[in-house]
Organic hydroperoxide resistance protein
Amino acid sequence: MNILYETRARVVGGRAGHATVEDGALALTLATPRALGGGEESGTNPEQLFATSFAACFLSALRFVANRRRLALTDDSAVVAAVGIGMREDGAGFGLQVALSVSLPGLEPGLAAKLVEEADQICPYSHLARAGAEIRVAIDD
């Protein structure tokens, strides 16, 4: 794959830690949700970040396919991503479940459905969720 953009995030402390990205644009306190055994600490969790990222990426894909058709989406077009975490049915650790809800005001429902289908075919988060991703793991010296 020809990489067009790459970023790096560093996390210390895991789910109850701190996250930063290399360009300094983001710094977060992480906290484990109570449902997963966390306490009263406030902070963001990986599922919230994934939901936010998936929704933003899918809306960008929708805007891309609309633009290819010379259509403009309204400023209040939106995607809501619900991300859940739980034990996989095959017992191989944890898994994620994603549900997307798309709002495309002003578009005829049939056209909106076509745009959603096209966006789903090009969105990298959709690809990741369906087919997995190339993941390389290395240990730093």
Q: What stands out?
A: The chain has a mean pLDDT of 91. The beta strands are 9-12, 18-21, 27-29, 78-87, 94-103.
